[in-house]
Amino acid sequence: MLYFINVFSDGGDIFNLFRYITFRAGGAFFTALCFGFIFGQPLINFLKKKQKNGQPIRPDGPEHHQILKAGTPTMGGVLILGAMLTGSILWARLDNVYVWVVLLVTIGFGLLGFVDDYKKVINRDSKGLSKSIRLLTGLLISLIASTLTMSVHSENLSGFIAFPIFKGALFYLGWFFIPFAMLVIVGSANAVNLTDGLDGLAVMPVMIAGGALGIIAYAVGRVDFSEYLDVHYVSGTGEILIIVSARASALSRAAIVFPVSGVSSESHTRKTLK
Question: Which terminus of the chain has fewer Cβ atoms in its 10 Å neighbourhood, N or C?
Fold first, then answer.
């Protein structure tokens, strides 16, 4: 949104900074951070007030969880999602399809996690949504995202997957690109569930993987970098760095706030921000 401020630039003033992805990525980071500082504690107080009994604890978990985690409020991922979306929408180019694809997946899985957590709290049951509903919803979200991605790729890249280790190597999948992309999206989302279990354990893998994604997207979205690295140029992907930057800020803030305040964001986070 703020990208369009650069129309007031004559080429050498402060407004010209809004053209640069790196500047806007920094702006998204600090915007998400400020969002966390402003709304973090009020949200925590609200969750504690509304969820007096906290989240139901799974009976098949470690025994000490029944004592230590009893009464812990959930839905802390709302803060992460809100901070990330605020930073992304303010600083990313909203005329970029890749931005909307990433936001679609983020919002979609975020709502799925919210409904799952809400059902657990209301029904006082640790099961939440059924596995089939979660899987089918995730597949639907990934189907829309992968179809949109394939439709905006250039003709020489549409339906292909690249192997950056092997210079110039492309493997043609055709329409099988869509189920492959669906498998990657849903698999990545559920992979965080396998690493989760301790406070903060889900945050670091997401930040590391997201950071790598942002760097790669920025590199292949620049003509000079892609030529130097001898990888395929994909116009517009550099904007993903802004979303990744906002996500990193939101996650880092949440990692500090939630363990101290006794609010759980595990279930919501692992469904929201993979």
Answer: N
CA distance 136 to 146: 15
**Alpha helices in the chain, H assignment, sequence order:** 21-50, 63-68, 77-91, 97-123, 131-152, 177-195, 203-220, 223-229, 240-261, 266-272
Nearest-angstrom CA–CA distance, 252 and 247: 8
> Which tokens belong to 35?
């969002």
b (16+ CB within 10 A) / e for 105-130 = bbbbbbebbbbbbeebbeeeeeebbe
pLDDT in tens, 51-106: 666 565 655 555 555 555 555 666 777 888 899 999 999 999 999 999 999 999 99
Find the domain containing 146 and state its range.
2-272
Number of domains into which the chain is organized: 1
CA distance linking residue 83 with residue 39, whole number of Å: 9
- Whole-angstrom Cα distance, residue 167 to residue 156? 16
User: What are the pLDDT digits (tens) for 102-136?
Assistant: 999 999 988 888 888 788 777 776 677 788 888 89
Cα angle 19-98-8, degrees, rounded to a multiple of 5: 20
Tell which residue, 93, 79, 121, has the closest CA to residue 28: 93
Report the percentage of the chain scoring pLDDT > 90. Answer: 30
193 band by pLDDT with thresholds 50, 70 and 90: low
CA distances from 124 to 27, 39, 68, 127, 134 (A): 40, 27, 18, 9, 19
Q: What is the pTM (predicted TM-score) of this model?
A: 0.82
C-beta atoms surrounding 94 within 10 Å = 14
